[in-house]
Amino acid sequence: MATNIDMKDLLEAGAHFGHKTSRWHPKMAPYIHSKRNGIHIIDLSKTADGIERAMEFLTNTAATGKQILFVGTKRQAQDIVSEAAQATKQPYVTVRWLGGMITNWNTIGGRVKHLKDLEARMESGELANRYSKLEVQRFQEEIDELNRIYGGIKNLNGKPGALYVVDAITEANAIKEANKMNIPVVAIIDSNADPSKVTYPIPANDDAIKAISLITGYVRQAVEAGQNKRSKTEPKKEGKEK
């Protein structure tokens, strides 16, 4: 997929604004353009290059049918990440990263299964038929709480094909688990983060809502392109013989 990246859009989104120079990570040096008023300015040509590489990878990954796990638990990213993930029918984490989410899927998957079972029993009317209204209410409260924590990964099929991460520092545990499981990571990397921790770094402001939205929009397009590519290559199912 050839991503159509408009440098003006990146500039207007404030993607070039890094952190204070005193907070920078030395390994970000190749991605820094200059300093302005004590702030590092990220080289947007490097941002565009990073987006191009990452989006090509995500398109190819989605084309194989593998899932991309979207991760963004910081306040600015939550709605943007969940909307993009839901639009592409991908799993997502926007509340908090639970330890072992991908390194100990047997345990996490057990909680997800429990949630699905409760929902199925609630929907079928089994709980209403067997328990009092107060008890059913408590079951519903449990379902709501489990959905708050696990709702975004209800359809995660074990090991994802890749992670898309908005903030490499906030989501350090997610990246650590992905690295342990040899899962490629695409991440927005601000001037204070270590780009060597991720497979496809996108040097950019990870605090500005406009920048997060713009880059996540590219991710959504890349995943959709891969899904469309897969749908065109899948053999058509023939009707059953009578």
Summarize, please.
By secondary structure, the protein is α/β, with parallel strands linked by helices. The protein has helices at 7-12, 44-63, 75-87, 105-124, 126-130, 133-150, 172-180, 209-233; strands at residues 17-20, 32-36, 39-42, 68-71, 92-93, 162-165, 185-189, 200-203.
Give structural notes.
By secondary structure, this protein is an alpha/beta fold. Helices cover 48% and strands 13% of the residues. The chain contains eight helices and eight strands, in the order αβββαβαβαααβαββα. It has helices spanning 7-12, 44-63, 75-87, 105-124, 126-130, 133-150, 172-180, 209-233; strands spanning 17-20, 32-36, 39-42, 68-71, 92-93, 162-165, 185-189, 200-203. It has a five-stranded parallel β-sheet, with helices on both faces. It has a three-stranded antiparallel β-sheet with strand order 1-3-2. The protein is globular. The protein starts with 6 loop residues before the first helix and ends in a 9-residue tail after the last helix.
Keywords:
242 residues, alpha/beta, 5-stranded parallel sheet, 8 helices, 13% strand
